Amino acid sequence: MKCKYCDKTFPEDDDTVLNYFEHTKINHYELLGDEDKMMHDIRDKMIKSKIDYDKFKKEIGDSDLFFNSNDSDNA
Questions:
Q1: How many independent structural domains does the chain possess?
Q2: What is the C-alpha to C-alpha distance for residues 16 and 46, in angstroms, rounded to an integer?
Q3: Of 18, 29, 32, 33, which is the most exposed, with the fewest CB atoms less than 10 Å away?
């Protein structure tokens, strides 16, 4: 993948899009139009939310369900 603002080329791997996104934020954010900046900021918040969610999932485990023995019929 090649940056549309400079000559930097990104190798095709699992992190290509994220690397391109970070490169754009660091080097070319001021060149983005108003709508592109808004979309970039939204994507940035979504990525941060996903990272926070993944960290949270590692701390509590993979289950999305929480069971409280006090609320169980078998307790």
A1: 1
A2: 17
A3: 33
Residue 42 is encoded by which pair of tokens?
């939204």
Query: What is the C-alpha separation between 8 and 5, in angstroms, rounded?
Result: 9
Q: Is residue 69 part of a domain?
A: no
pLDDT given for residue 75 in this prediction = 47
Q: Are 1 and 10 in contact (CB under 8 A)?
A: yes
Q: Which domain holds residue 48?
A: 1-59
- What SS3 class is residue 2? strand
Residues 6+ apart with CB under 8 A from 18: 47
Would you state the structure tokens that stand for residue 20, as one six-digit string?
């391109």
75 token code pair: 């307790």
Give dist(CA 7, CA 18) in Å, integer: 17
Question: The whole model's pTM is what?
Answer: 0.64
Instruction: Please report, rounded to a whole number, the percentage of residues in the chain having pLDDT higher than 90.
Output: 59
